[in-house]
Amino acid sequence: MGDKPGQVEDGRIRAALAARLRAAGSVYAEDEADILLSAATTADERERMVRERAAGRPLEYVVGWAWFCQLKIFVDPGVFVPRVRSEFLVQEARAHLSGHAVVVDLGCGTGALGAALWAAAPDATVYAVDRDPAAVRCARRNLSPHRVYEGDLYEALPPHLAGRVNLIVANVPYVPSASLAHLPREARLYEAPMALDGGADGLDVLRRVADGAPAWLAAGGHLLVESSEAQAPHVAACFRRGGLLATVARCEELEATVVVGSKPLGP
Prior knowledge:
This protein has 267 residues and is of the alpha/beta class. It is built from ten helices and nine strands. It has helices at residues 5-23, 29-39, 43-54, 59-63, 87-94, 112-120, 133-142, 185-190, 204-216, 232-241, and strands spanning 65-68, 71-74, 102-106, 125-130, 148-150, 165-170, 217-227, 245-251, 256-262. A seven-stranded mixed β-sheet has the order 5-4-3-6-7-9-8, with helices on both faces. Strands 1-2 form a two-stranded antiparallel sheet. α9 (204-216) runs parallel beside α10 (232-241).
């Protein structure tokens, strides 16, 4: 049996959209065409979205969401877009996640890490923090709004959580300042610099995350952060200076590196 007329027309529209996106430089033109077709509710909206994407605006900002760990995560303009490689951080964190854990997503951006861990353990209590008001507003759409706080790392957390957190996950800025100019165009032009700039060696924020973690972690709790492969030994050293045991996990497929810190059970 042949294709129905509607299917033929849909195929033609998809092919035309993919051709326009490919001509604009999209590497995944067919996949992006499918996403735009599913997201647009009218032909006019579809045309607007295609024009924006062809002009270079990140797909996630065009449609307003991103797929992350099989979840649809709301993404607002300017907020750091969750990367596929960060799914490895979630994977590693799940190994340390218990049903009733207290979890903190530090420097949360959209709250994608916390949302993925909450989906894996619905009985967990997930808190999130970001210093960017736009990120906080966005994360409140993806997590429990009353547990998302605006502020600078641990300073924004409720004091009663000190010494009671079982799991901290952090994908904070780790790009060296001098390397920002070499980031992909979409990141440079559209994402907030504070979500990318990690200082001279890329470790300014990661050091502060490591230094503050022991006071907030419960005995036997864990801190997991994303870094580059080259930075990982230095991050691990920061963990150890603060009294955490440290290991490094690497996923070559996703080109992702995670440093895992564990607070000892005893003194």
